[in-house]
Amino acid sequence: MGRTALVLGATGLVGGELVNRLERKENYSQITLIGRRPFSIGSKKVRNVVVNMHSLKDVAEEFKVDDIFCCLGTTIKKAGSKEAFRQVDFQLPVAAAQLGSFEGAKNFLVISSMGANTNSAFFYNRVKGEMEEEVKKMTFDAIHIFRPSLLLGSRKEFRLGEKLAEWAVKPFSKILPDSLKKSFPIPAETVANAMAIAAQMEAQGINIYESGQIRETGKSIFK
Which residues form the NAD(P)-binding domain (predicted)? Predict the structure, then answer.
């Protein structure tokens, strides 16, 4: 049997791009998608598991895989409150890491955010930092934490801030050096590619990818 993967947040911006890459990868024999609604799939080796996301323990056996990709994330505005945001961006990733660790998963890869810090004055960044610290406590061969800047891509909902950022930086994207682009908005497909590539590495311990490193890793061809 080949490599196995579990993706949480497949219906999201990065998650969807990630699934498309993994299903084309020959060494993955099975890819399980866990979410509150099904993701449209085009491969027989991809399967949906629809579940109440706040009861992940009900499908604990699904976490017995090689690689767990956690692409969950929202905004305070979309979630409706700080507490609801915390449930998605802290509680769910930590619960997934706990289950994966208990079930013997080898690698845990999770999307955080640029500026994640437990001491941040910003609630969003503070929650992301707290999530990272809890995930780091879990036992895996390798933990990969990705801290992208503002994500770009085709979302179902319109986010004015993201569109304004995209329009603002586009004229400069080809003339500025890479060193100045590290905090620029980053395409979701680049983040997905970086995650897929990182899972293939023989890495150990805790690995943190800042936005500039995600951009560089994501440029590579996912073989």
Answer: 9-131
